[in-house]
Specification:
Elements (H helix, E strand, L loop, with lengths): L1 H8 L11 E11 L25 E11 L9 E10 L16 E10 L6 E7 L2 E2 L12 E2 L4 E9 L2 E9 L1 H5 L7 E12 L2 E12 L10 E2 L5 H6 L2 H8 L11 E2 L2 E14 L2 E12 L5 E6 L2 E6 L1 H4 L2 E15 L3 E14 L11 E13 L4 E14 L32 E13 L11 E11 L26 E12 L1
Antiparallel strand pairs: 1-2, 1-24, 2-3, 3-4, 4-5, 5-8, 6-7, 8-9, 9-10, 10-11, 11-14, 12-13, 14-15, 15-18, 16-17, 18-19, 19-20, 20-21, 21-22, 22-23, 23-24
């Protein structure tokens, strides 16, 4: 009797129910006063490594389990996901933290084991990638970044297969939306404990739609140089006086783009892991441009002038443990080649080759106090003329060395070489690891470039004699940064 009474008085400890809601994310914020007139970044872009070349950023990913997944069982489950992100913070960006610069970058629902065991269905945004080049913050082997649609992902044992279809029109065309039908797949296979490979690709088709001004069209007879100068209508008027109304009408057509990706990952001994990524891409062409001539606006459709753009990108990142608990090394390489078979007259970002290597050493004085040293070397080479200025007062010359006041080149060199160095202490409350976060850093950064003022700035670059500001010729750029980066 007493035992029964005592059992009623002792509170029963029920197992707490796991929350159906979860949230995680990423943040990066820093103070980088720039006393050389720059914008707080060491160089132009992540070709030199992401460190000191990126601005503030935040991402928040939300998940709600509508029907929780049961571990070890092939029972149905479903969840909804949303991701909000953007590069804005008060006091750290020009927009001063405006929430208008945040975006809902991902929104989708998932359901597993519905109809097919070991298959996860996803409707909404479909972004998928094999992995990251961490030092560059790049994802070369990525598909469906622009796509909203349906995917099915089969995961069992050593096999991971994704198949998807959807529409990429809004991401690629924005306010000038036109349907871009997209399909693709990705397959990753684990061949051994520390060896896996992956292949994939996607196809983008923009169909011909007669009467839709945002669908692919081409205006017959366009000259590429006149198009670059914005002088197509002027040339037509010179050759056909008084016949501007006879400017050729656009012809509808379809457009095709594609992307192929590959991945190899492996590790052995002091090489903790190595990621090798590759991408080959054929981009869709542009839609149209507008020229104003004699007070009238003329629309020129340029799909045929911009639909031969290709891109190859290969990246590798190796993570080494040189001395256990004392010294780690991460070494990355990046190669890219962009070519435009339509353009033979002017340099552009669609006609270039670039090479880069980034090396980071991180030594551990204590589990929480580290010292970081990173260096990078990069070369960018224009494949179609001079794209870079070695001196602020350079005389613009063509490749043949002849003065050309109407030249389509932008500088006096077809090559830009850049070296960067970053060094400083790191406080890591969670202990060892190059990618352990949160990470509190005090860094000094130094850049040298063959291009003058090779960093974001507000210098007046005019060579006009009445330019009252002038512009310094700086090849070195220095920064001191206090920053924090965290996953949560």
């Amino acid at each position: 009797m007493l035992v029964a009474l005592a059992s009623l008085l002792v509170p029963v400890r029920a197992e707490p129910e796991r929350s159906r809601f979860s949230a995680g994310g990423y943040l990066r914020v820093m103070a980088r006063p720039d006393f050389q007139g720059g914008d707080g970044k060491l160089g132009y872009w992540n070709l030199h490594g992401r460190l000191l070349n990126e601005g503030p950023y935040a991402a928040l990913e939300l998940k709600l389990d509508l029907l929780p997944e049961v571990a070890g069982k092939n029972t149905p489950w479903t969840s909804v996901h949303a991701k909000i992100e953007g590069g804005t913070v008060q006091g750290g960006t020009r927009d001063n933290g405006s929430l208008a610069n945040l975006r809902l970058s991902q929104l989708y629902a998932r359901a597993g084991n519905v109809g097919l065991a070991h298959v996860t269905w996803q409707i909404g945004t479909l972004d998928y990638y094999f992995g990251d080049l961490g030092l560059y913050d790049l994802r070369p082997a990525q598909i469906f970044f622009e796509t909203i649609g349906l995917s099915a992902r089969y995961q069992r044992g050593d096999i991971d297969l994704l198949i998807g279809v959807g529409d990429s029109g809004y991401a690629l065309r924005g306010e000038q939306y036109d349907s871009v039908l997209t399909g693709g797949l990705a397959l990753r296979v684990k061949l051994a404990e520390k060896f896996q490979i992956g292949i994939g690709g996607q196809l983008l088709w923009e169909p011909e739609v007669r009467g839709n001004r945002f669908a692919p069209h081409t205006t017959p007879g366009l000259d590429y140089e006149d198009y670059l100068r914005g002088e197509v209508v002027q040339r037509f008027d010179e050759q056909n006086p008084g016949r501007l109304d006879d400017l050729p009408k656009p012809v509808p057509q379809s457009a095709l783009g594609w992307k192929a990706i590959a991945y190899v990952g492996f590790g052995a001994g002091p090489l903790r892991w190595n990621n090798l990524f590759a991408k080959l891409e054929h981009r869709l062409g542009d839609q149209f441009v507008t020229e104003t001539y004699q007070g009238r606006d003329f629309t020129l459709h340029v799909n045929d002038l911009t639909n031969q753009r290709y891109a190859l990108q290969i990246g590798n990142e190796a993570q080494f443990q040189l001395v256990e608990g004392r010294l780690d090394l991460v070494w990355s390489l990046l190669y890219g080649q962009d070519w435009d078979d339509d353009n033979a007259v002017a340099p552009s970002d669609f006609d270039r080759t670039y090479y880069s290597t980034v090396l980071r050493l991180q030594t551990y004085l204590t589990p929480e106090l580290h010292v970081l040293l990173e260096t990078s070397l990069a070369r960018e080479k224009s494949r179609n003329g001079n794209a870079y200025r070695r001196f602020g007062d350079s005389v613009f010359r063509s490749t043949d060395g002849l003065s050309d006041a109407r030249g389509l080149e932008y500088g006096d060199s077809d090559t830009r070489d850049t070296w960067q160095l970053k060094v400083g202490p790191v406080l890591s409350p969670l202990g060892l690891g190059v990618y352990t976060r949160p990470s509190f850093r005090l860094l000094y950064g130094l850049q040298w470039s063959s291009q003058v003022n090779a960093f974001g700035n507000s210098f007046v670059e005019s060579l006009d004699q009445f330019n009252q500001y002038g512009a310094p010729n700086q090849r070195f750029h220095h920064l001191v940064a206090l920053e924090v980066e965290a996953w949560f």
